[in-house]
Write a structure and sequence with these properties.
By secondary structure, the protein is an all-alpha fold. 67% of the residues lie in helices and 0% in strands. Helix 1 packs across helix 3 and helix 3 packs antiparallel against helix 4. The chain starts with a helix and ends in a 10-residue tail after the last helix. The mean pLDDT is 92.
Length: 83
């Protein structure tokens, strides 16, 4: 991952954190070229940093968005149909 791409990920994460509640899908859809495993990895790294800094709400939000994005990209295992 290039430094430039990581900066784009950080900018997108910042937009997600600042957008009004419920507008996250629009923010993500506006930059489809950034929706990949690298973004999810970066979101998890930022969420971990938030958790260590005591920002539990920010961490939980990013983990939730990363999980939903993972599902949408087919990167999250679907365990609902398994026993």
């Amino acid at each position: 991952m290039t430094e430039q791409r990581q900066d784009l990920y950080f900018n997108l994460i910042d937009q997600l954190l600042r957008c009004p509640n419920g507008q996250e899908p629009e923010v993500l859809e506006a930059q489809p070229e950034l929706l990949d495993a690298g973004l999810i990895q970066t979101m998890m790294e930022v969420a971990t940093g938030f958790a260590h800094q005591g920002n539990q709400d920010g961490a939980q939000f990013l983990i939730h968005v990363a999980r939903e994005l993972s599902k949408g990209l087919g990167l999250y295992p679907d365990v609902s149909n398994k026993e």
